[in-house]
Structure formats: structure tokens, C-alpha cells
Amino acid sequence: MRIPYYPSRESRVKKLLEVFEPKSGVKIIDLGSGDGRILRILSSKYDDIYLYGVEKDKVLFDISNKLSKGYGNIKIFNGDLFHVDISRYDIVYTYLTSDALKRLRDRAEDFLSRGGTWIALDYSIPGIKPRHIIKLDGWHKYYIYYFEKPRGYLKV
Known about the structure:
Rossmann fold; seven-stranded mixed β-sheet
């Protein structure tokens, strides 16, 4: 499956940070992390969390690694997001297509049932109702998923 690269705008991430406050030690993974900008923005604000990115595209992976040097809490993996063990993380962040999220749906439900939080930009996970929808503008929005309210992550 080919997933197009559309980098998230910093302004959208800053809007998320108005309602999102990860507690110390939390592990966040960005599936399809592109150039790693989400991870760098989070790292700049929170140096006490662990940030991971998975990017299949070798060029984007190389760019992400280069731009993330000096950020001690970021690790980028070159790999397929559909084969990552997400159970090791507390929060999953995605900016993926509907088709990709449909393919991840069962894994997302299992992840959420184990206490995880999933944050999806622009596209909802088919068949799972988000707990919160944060509207950014006329089209863009964040879908926030969790089954049990995570303590210390969200201000909503």
C-alpha cells in the first residue's frame, strides 16, 4: 500500500498541544513519521518522554534521522508501519489515509483495549468512535481515541 507524504503543519501540532500533555516517561510512536517533524516538535516541548518514528521511505527516513540528530529522546526506525508492534507504546500518532487506518483497525482496537491512546489527524479509524474530535479549521481535525481515560495525557 502506498501512503502519500503530506507533512503536518506545525500550527496543527501546536493546536494539539493545547489539549495534549503527556506525562513523564510516556512512549509515543508516529506511524509513517515522514521527516520526523511531529517528533521534533514534541521533543522540543517535552524532553522527558520517549519518541519513536517508523518510516518506510528511505529518503524520508534519512532526512528524519539527519534532522533529529541532537534530540536525545527521538529514535527513528526504517520499516513498514503495518508490521510494528504498537503494544510497547502508550500513544500512537497517525496522519494516514482512510485505507491505511482501515487496515490498522483491528490492531488499533486491541491497542486501545489495553489502555492505549490513539491520535489521528484528518482521518478517523473506521468502526471505532473517537472520544474527542478537535476541529482545527474547516477541514482538518484530530480524532482522539481511548477506551479508558488516560491520566496525564489530555486536558479535554
